[in-house]
Fold each of these.
Amino acid sequence: MEIIGSVLNTSVTGIDDMLDTRDVSKLLEYSDLQLRRGAQRIAVNCGSRVDTEISDLMWMVQEIQKHFEVPLVIDSPNPEAHREVIPLLRFGRPMINSVTAEKTRLEALMPLAKQYNAQVTALLFDESGMAREPEDRLRVLPVITDAADAYGIAPGDIYLDAGVFPLSVDHQNGSIYLETLKALQERCPQFRTICGLNNISFGLPCGQLTDMVFLSVLEQAGQSAVYVELGQETGAAVSALKLLYGRDSHCAAYLKNYRAGLLIE
């Protein structure tokens, strides 16, 4: 499962202040820690800063790429932000987060994905929002898959996001997501799957405990990727899962992380 570090988001405490002061050292500290905790890509999101979003994204992208050769994900509801920032990306393939089944979003972002050979996170909702029941969420799936075909985007470059909602809102939200994930895998095995993992624990105490367990469940369920704010506990879980699933030769990364104090006792 691919891990996309998502702590560089203005909804996270401290990121607004970092942007206001253009604190490069803090930006690099956040980025380095996400990478050390197992992130393979880093997502950047300044969506709450409407007036300065594009310049904020440009600053983050340029500074991160001066120091780390890491693929970046541009997370924005604003197509113009993607148009301005995607050309700046230098390492790996870009990813657009996110397309939806809304006509205006598809028409604005799918051509950009084609132009820049970008991968796409596609949320399963349209103008009416996202439904609660798995079968209702899947009703917009043909709109997204048809658009991918029409714009020449390979299915393997589309990451379908069925939407994780907090357990604090509805204790069934975890099981609803897993049921939807299974249906996606059965109906569209050629597409990938993704979600915002930390949403599951929003509003709950000891959130990283729930996140750790959910991460393990998603790994077992065959999820392709997750967006996750990697804290110490979730970072340790990523390291342990990599080891347990045979992706850590001679336990080298696990032991390195232990010596660096990145694991938990």
Note: The radius of gyration is 18 Å.
Amino acid sequence: MWGMNNPTRPRPVLDMTPEGEFREAPKPRGFNLLLARMGGIAMLIAVAAAGLLLVALAIFFIGLLLPIVIAAGSIAALSLWWRRRQLRKMGIEPSPVRIILRR
């Protein structure tokens, strides 16, 4: 708090109207306007790039999981085929494979 009482420190200026309302900040002009617009465009590009990065990461992880899904499905299909073959060898005609989906 000692910094507030420092006489060499410039005091903040509140620009107010006689009615007690704050005045509006001056509109940026010239180089400040150019920098403000470039900053907005740069922010838009950064958000778009972050979105593309998330999409790329999702595709990468799907690509990593795809071989696992294919291998697990192949093992399951091979297991079903083998069990049906064994049942036919024993003279039992297996019932058709039924897939039930519930919502």
Note: The chain is about 55% helix and 0% strand.
